[in-house]
Amino acid sequence: MTTDAFPPVIAAQINYLLSHSPLSIKIDQMWAGCKYSGLLDRFSLLIPFCLDYIKWDVIYNAQCPLAAPDVIFGPEDENFHPFCVTGDEGDFKLPKNSLSDWNSKDPSGLLTLVHELRDLYMSYQKKRIGEVDDDRLKFEVSTMLSREGIEMYMSSGAEKPEEVKFAVPLLDMNINKMVFGCNWRHQQKIYLQVIFPVGRKYVSVPSAPRLKLVSTPELKVLFPIEDVKLPPWLDGMCMAEYLPNLEETLEGQIMDAVSLIDVRRHFIEALAPVFGRPLEADPVFCRKVTFLAASGVFTFLVHCFLPTQFPKQQPVLMLQSSQHFNSQGAPIKSHLLSEYPWSPRWEPSQMAERISEFLVDECLNFKKYCNETQLQQH
Amino acid sequence: MDDLPLQKIQISGPTLASMIQRFSTALGDVDGLLFGHVSHIAPSSLSDDDPLGSSSDPSTFVATVSGFLCSGTIDSFYDSSGQVNVLALRRLLADRIPLRSLIGWFSGRRRSPLRPSLRESSVTACLSTKAQFSFPIENSLSNFRPSLFLLFASPLSDQVIHTHEYKAYQYCLSSQTLEPKSIDIVNIGPAFRGHYGSFSPSSPFPSLACDLRGSPMAEDDTDATRVSKAQAQRELDTCAEGVQIGSLRRLMGSEATNYTAGLEDLYEKMLAKLDSLARLVEKTSAKVHEQESHNMKLRYKVAGYD
């Protein structure tokens, strides 16, 4: 999405927000609120919060582009009045905030405002949850509060059951630093999402919370979080008992995932004597490598995708012809090939040999397939 | 400080329509002030024993919006964080007669959700704590602070049919929330006859101090009577065009047989006055419009686009 259709001073603030925020804030929709000018001046922001997004509408005014923006919160948050503070005497005070001295020429204004409001929203949610009359919840909150970066959210709607959602950051380790040469812009984190139903009645064995592991999206290339099996939740357990155990297992798994990068690197290096120097290779996570190969005059590319579980799982191969093209002009590619002789116990050089042997036969099938596909087009 | 929760808010159809018209014809978002009165309506069923000992039932306060002032822009009497600027507010109120008390404010923003925004909540909260703008409630000893907020919005998607949504709120000091209030639209027609009972005109005919009975004794033109006559004539001129003060005498006493003709003549002259006022408004509006488009050009220049 481009912000060109906004007045320049407003566009500068939006671009600054999107490029400088440590949170991955997104623009969901943008539109115009003024007549005739054709300039956009309002948009909705998706702001990451508690492993979900909160959607706030930001209302500028193209007629007065130098004026400060206004914000409309979600329909569930009509009681969230972040800047209003009433004193004991009933006198009304507006504490100094990022809207008080709005300087439209400062592109960081919107970013400061959004972050200030998000922080206040966090305290607002914390306060709401603190007021819930549920002993188990009160206990869980008290044990988890000391965790840095914990976020919580209470969903309340007419048709939805009341529940409290926690995003618990796990592992006090810097994954970004563990991977040599990685170019992740955001700090990679793993969270445990815990959802407690709000129960106001006393029950001897409260139901287990809903648990789900969530990671920042870029971590997938190193460590697919959905493959992790959560330890079981035992009756009468609490988060303080559950978390240390989970963190210990996760830590071990991440260490393994990081050490597997080197195993993949050795394999890619072992492919070079057989296939020649790679055309392209993923140097950081070593998940992908491409070679140029030939069988007689038939020249083709071999794409090799390495799973995170390599060498337990074998690489997936795909061939791409350099000589055959489909009707759209794109090179013809084979299906994904994952059924070929493989043993994780082989030495990397033997793995490379066996792939080469497999491809000697397979490339003839692929050549035939290419010729047939091209013939059908004529 | 007490909260005086309103049972409902009344507004006449033409007033609401005229507000919506101002909002929909403006180039951008608008805000403005609401004027009117609040009355305490005695409960219809009175009983001798009052178990709670409460003399006033809180749900019987009704606010009536009788007029408004649209600023034509935003941030007209508050700053970007929503703090009310009392000086700017006084300037807007300068020519208001006390009969039309400030009961709240309104905001109209195009293509946005019908929920109070961050700034609107702050302005409403801030305005309702300004004790200097409070005024007495009719039939009650309490005072009412300007705590109403009327929000206008139009749907996000472009539509063939123009829809305008509106919602009224009252700021509740004890809970620090904006309580939604129902709006009662008062229209002309048999169904609304009951409302006329509490009707109070917002531009009354001036009460003329001059003695018009015209007894033979008063015929002698003393300075005192001449001065008071001239004063009364001036007041009459503000609401009717070209009616001599002396002719009002025909509406009283023995000459009142021609009452109908005389009254019709007065109404006609009042309409003529309105007509000339309308022409004046038209002329000044053109000037205002010219100035507005000039201002807009300047603003666009400052903002860096042409």
UniProtKB/TrEMBL annotation, chain A:
Keyword Nucleus recorded: yes
GO cellular component entries: BRISC complex; cytoplasm
Alphabetic keyword roster: Apoptosis, Cell cycle, Cell division, Chromatin regulator, Cytoplasm, DNA damage, DNA repair, Mitosis, Nucleus, Repeat, Ubl conjugation pathway
Name of this protein: BRISC and BRCA1-A complex member 2
GO biological process: cell division; chromatin organization; double-strand break repair
UniProt cross-references to Pfam families, sorted A to Z: BRE
PANTHER family named in the record: BRISC AND BRCA1-A COMPLEX MEMBER 2
Organism: Vitis rotundifolia (Muscadine grape)
Signal peptide: none
UniProt similarity note: Belongs to the BABAM2 family.
Cellular compartments annotated: Cytoplasm; Nucleus
TrEMBL record, chain B:
Position of the signal peptide: none
Organism: Vitis rotundifolia (Muscadine grape)
Protein name: Uncharacterized protein
Pfam families named in the record: MPN_2A_DUB_like
Single GO MF annotation: polyubiquitin modification-dependent protein binding
InterPro entries, per the entry: FAM175, FAM175_plant
Entry's transmembrane regions: none
Coiled coil: none
Gene Ontology CC: one annotated term: nucleus
